Amino acid sequence: MAEHLEIIKLYFDYKSPFTYLAMEPAYRLEQTHRVRLRYLPCDFNPRKAYGGELEERTERDWRKVRYLYLDARRHANERGIIIRGPQKLFDSRLAMMGGMWADRHGKFRPYSDRVFERFFKRELDIEDMSAIAGVMNEAGLDVEGFRRYLESEGPRDLQAAYDEAERDGAFGVPTFIVAGEPFWGNDRVAWVVKKLDAMGLRR
User: Fold this and answer.
1) Domain encompassing residue 50
2) Does residue 166 lie within any of the structural domains?
3) How many of the other CB atoms lie within 10 Å of CB of 112?
């Protein structure tokens, strides 16, 4: 009989440094507990969160952004991860549909690890189809199949994920949903573990 696994929803966005920081601890949950992660894109909107376009931000907005990246780098430095702030406000829809395509084909992690690492080293333009195609080739994914997905189911699947995030009350990323309970932020994984332990799901 197949092992029953509790499904944990993980709402993500490739342009979120805190999602990047959450991924490795999130992956480990599948080894330590009887769970399976379900990856769902959720658009992080920096314009809404931090005062509009870059040139429209007030000094107070910039202080907030600088502080958040300071915190992100503190977490990253402890783990030997490089996080450089993006130099523009990126649209991550293409990359996130790539994540959905990769997940559909059992390649979410090899694709996503490359996207996160290179984006935050400023080595990957997540709006550039040729750049995303290069990552997909490295991850062993069918690029032409992905192009067809973009023209057919991809936008619909992305909107369905956004709608599900709204129903779940996810207002930022990363957000974990465990048995209906939300946990927002990379530093909430420890609380996710406590929740799973209380549910008797430790392996």
Assistant:
1) 6-198
2) yes
3) 25
Does residue 203 belong to any structural domain of this protein?
no
If one counts every other C-beta atom within 10 angstroms of the C-beta of residue 69, the result is: 16
Give a yes or no: residue 1 inside a domain.
no
Please state the rounded mean pLDDT for residues 151-161. Answer: 98
pTM of the model: 0.92
Starting at the edge strand found earlier in the chain, the sheet holding 35-41 runs: 35-41, 6-12, 175-178, 181-184
Residues ≥6 apart with Cβ < 8 Å to 92:
13, 14, 15, 43, 44, 126
**Mean pLDDT for the stretch of residues 137-147:** 98
Q: Which long-range contacts (CB under 8 A, 24 or more apart) does 129-136 make?
A: 129/94, 132/94, 132/95, 132/98, 135/98, 135/111, 136/98, 136/101, 136/102, 136/111
- Output the domain CATH number for residue 73: 3.40.30.10
Give residue-wise pLDDT tens across range 94-121: 999 999 999 999 999 999 999 999 999 9
Residue with tokens 């197949």: 2
Total number of domains in the chain: 1
Residue 48: its pLDDT value, please?
A: 63
